[in-house]
Design goal:
Layout (H helix, E strand, L loop, with lengths): L1 E7 L3 E7 L5 E8 L6 H19 L6 E8 L2 H9 L2 H6 L3 E6 L8 E9 L6 E6 L7 E6 L4 E8 L7 H18 L4 H4 E8 L2 H18 L10 E6 L9 E9 L6 E4 L18 E5 L4 E8 L14 H16 L9 E8 L5 H10 L7 E5 L8 E10 L22 H14 L5 H6 L4 H25 L1 H4 L7
Helix pairs in contact: 4-6, 7-8
Amino acid sequence: MEFTFFSEGNFVRGSSVSTSEGAEEFFITIHSSEEHFFADELTTLYDSYMMAMDKCGLSEDTLAFGRFFLSDIVNQKDTLVQSKIYDVARKGAVSIIQQCPVNGGSVCLFVYHIKSKNNSFNKKVINYDNENWRNGVLIHGNYYDLLWTTNFSVIGPLDSYKQTREIFQSFNNIINESGMNLLDNVVRTWFYVRDIDNHYTGMVESRKAFFAEHGLTPETHYISSTGIGGISKDVNSLVSFDALSINKLRGEQIVRMAALDDLSPTITYGGTFERGTRIRFGDRSHLYISGTASIDKNGNVIHFSDIRKQTQRTLDNIKALLDPHGAGLQDMAYLIVYIRSFKYKKKVMEVLEREGFSREDAIPFLDQETEKGYIKRVRMIFVARIPFTAPPFIPYYNMSDIRNIDPNEYEQLKQQCRNSGLLMNEENYLMGEYPPELSQPATQYVEKEKRQMRDMLWEEAFQQWQGLTYSW
């Protein structure tokens, strides 16, 4: 696998990954210069994008997805949609959100391209409303289909619970029509919430209820996600939603990412998203890291008032998620950082530079609508360069019923029971039916072991799909 970082002029940074069997992927960020008129900034953005595509051998035909980050969506949207760069971006799925870039001008663009061996692939751009605002792109590959859906929002009662449910109902109908469903095919989501301090809880509760109705539970899996302050084009739209779905995946290709010694499962505090998700293809893995913050293994925000320590803790959490999968920060395809104030930029960048990033690697955005804390979220996608070697087959009992307990842990639990005057029989131990006094530490231990065992079993199934490369 070949992994490359590149730049073009002062405004373009990117990465690419390719294999001998599969497609070449490009992750590119383009900043604008700070100009007097917004239209002039869009011209700079367009020129920089054209140069980047020319350098990388890309075209409108290879574009899959793009997202514009604006500083003032109400006053900039009309100019943007009439611009040359928007005409190009509409050749793929295009998302537009108000999140003010910290660097350069008042607009930034992120794009994702797929370059096939044949320099073309079967792509269909889809409009889901009369305004061409809700949109998407369906890309048919040799072994997989990608569906990007963007700008899903509703105008209605100022109730984030109801708006989120209506968005999910519409989105679910669309993926069902494409032969997909939430549990088996949706691998990444983005939620942008207006006035997040007041409307985030409604979105979270609505998502939890909808997921439960469609089989997404702690026993199955959730979806990697970012939930952050962001503003869509309509004042009455409280939630805007983007998603990536992949058709023809097999269950063993979707792997939960966890770091229980550093980060609790989000369900611990009512969340219903994965810390990260690894999607395993025949020639590479995509590691989608959810929005990550300076939190501890109990879900508490830590290092209040110290932006440097919060930044470091956030990166440490990400490294803990990546490490079990043989990946690290060096495998980053792109990085987005949200900060509460412009004044924190320098301190955040100092920490990132210590971790090996240059000042141009990160894409910082101002997020003025977050709960207390300083650095709110870091989100990344990693393309892991991991050799696939299936281990010997190891049989296990049905993990939904039988708990596999380490002998030392088993003896410790029995001794704790005796010391506490609790009675447990052998079957209770095997079934994981612990007394309440011991249930929490035991459950944490079992969940950690169960996931490791499941992942080992799924390695066995690798032989069934290792030839299904990420190719078009």
